[in-house]
Design a protein that fits this description.
The protein is mostly helical and about 325 residues long. The protein folds into two domains: about 100 residues, Orthogonal Bundle (Cytochrome Bc1 Complex, Chain D, domain 2), CATH 1.10.760.10; about 120 residues, Orthogonal Bundle (Cytochrome Bc1 Complex, Chain D, domain 2), CATH 1.10.760.10. It contains 15 helices and six strands. The strands form three sheets. It has a two-stranded antiparallel ribbon. The two termini are about 35 Å apart. The protein binds heme C (2 copies). The site of one heme C has 25 residues, from helix 5, helix 7 and helix 8. Keywords: Heme, Iron, Metal-binding, Oxidoreductase, Signal. It comes from Achromobacter deleyi.
Length: about 325
Amino acid sequence: MNPMSRRLSRATARLAALTLTAGLAATAAHAAGPVTDARPAFTPPTAASLPDSEFGKIVRQGEQIFLHTPQNAAKFVGNDLNCASCHLDAGRRADSAPMWAAYVLYPAYRAKNGHVNTLAERLQGCFRFSMNGKAPAADDPVLTALQTYMFWLASKAPTGVALKGQGYLKLPAPAQKADYVRGSEVYGQYCAVCHGDKGQGQKNGTHWVFPALWGPDSFNWGAGMHQIGNAAGFIKANMPLGQAGMLNDQEAWDVAYFMNAHERPQDPRYTESVAKTRAKYHDSDDSLYGLEINGHLLGSDSPAPGGKLVQAAAK
Ligand code: HEC
Ligand code: HEC
C-alpha cells in the first residue's frame, strides 16, 4: 500500500474509531492521539466451532491455501512465501494484518490503483505482488476459498468498522533517520540466524523453513512489505519470531530499511525505466526503489517478476 492509501485507510480507521467513541470530539488533536485504543476488540471463532458442512469444507480449503500457498495455489504463486508468512497464526494474529479485521473493511477505495476494490481484487493484488505471481480470476475457486475463510474468521464482527489489531503497527517516525549500517548490525544480530546472511531464507531439502526477505525468492517491488513503514511495523510486532518486542522502534526502522535496500523481483507495473517507474509508483520516502544505495541503483538489476511461474514457462 502506498503512503497515500495507508494514510487514507488510517484516516478511515480513525474516523470509525472516533464515530464510535462517544464524547470524543473529532479534532485534529484527537485524531493524532492514541485513538487506536478506542477501536472495538474482536476475537475470531475457534477452529472447533467450524461446521462440518459443505461451507466448512471451503473454509478449511481457504485456510490451507493461506497456510501453504505455493502447494495449494501453485498456478498463481511465483515465490515460496505463504500468506501466513506475513499474516501470522493463519491470519488470526492482531497487528499482523489479520484477515478477520480486513474482511469487514472491503470494498474499499485504494489509492494504489485509484478505485474502489472488492475483496477479490484486493486479494488479486496479494498474488501479483506479495506472492510475486499471477492474479487468479475474480471467480477462481482459490479466491472463493480465501474469501470464505476470511468471512468465517470475521463471524459476528461489525461491518465497516476498523477493529483493534487491524493492519500492521504504525510506528512513530524514528528519532534518527533509518540507517543501512545500523540496520545491518541489527540484522546480523537478530535475523540472519533464521533468514540467512544474504536474506535468502532457509530450505530443508525442497521445504522452506524460513522465508526469504530479499532476492529472487522474495516478494517483489510492488508488494506492501517493500515499504519501510509497513516492514518496520510488521517487524516490531512480530520479529524475531517467538521473541517479538525485543527490538526498539529505532532498531525496527533500521532493519526494515536494510532489508528493503536490497534487490528483489521487478515491480510488475514497471514502465520504460527505473526512474519512470519510481516517479509513477514509488515517489515517497517509504520506498527505496529507484534510489542508489551503496553504489547500486535499486530496481536496475531485479529478476523479472513471476519467479517460478516465469521460469517454468521458459523451460
Ligand atoms: C527464529 C527464526 C526467526 C528469526 C530470528 C527472525 N525471523 Fe522473520 N520469520 C521467521 C518465520 C518462520 C517467518 C514466517 C512466519 C510464519 O511462517 O509463521 C518469518 C517472517 C518474516 C517476514 C515476512 C515474510 C518475508 O519473507 O518477507 C519478515 C519481513 C521477517 N520475518 C523479518 C525478520 C527480521 C527483520 C528479523 C530480525 C529482526 C527476523 N525476521 C527474525 C523466522 C524468524
Ligand atoms: C511479504 C508479506 C506478505 C505476504 C506474503 C502476503 N501479504 Fe497480505 N499484506 C502484506 C502487507 C505489508 C499488507 C499491508 C500493506 C498493503 O496493503 O500493501 C497486506 C495487506 C493484506 C490485506 C489487507 C489487510 C487490511 O487490513 O486491509 C489482505 C486481505 C491480505 N494482505 C491478504 C493476503 C493474502 C490472502 C495473502 C496470500 C495470498 C497475502 N496477503 C500475502 C504483506 C503480505
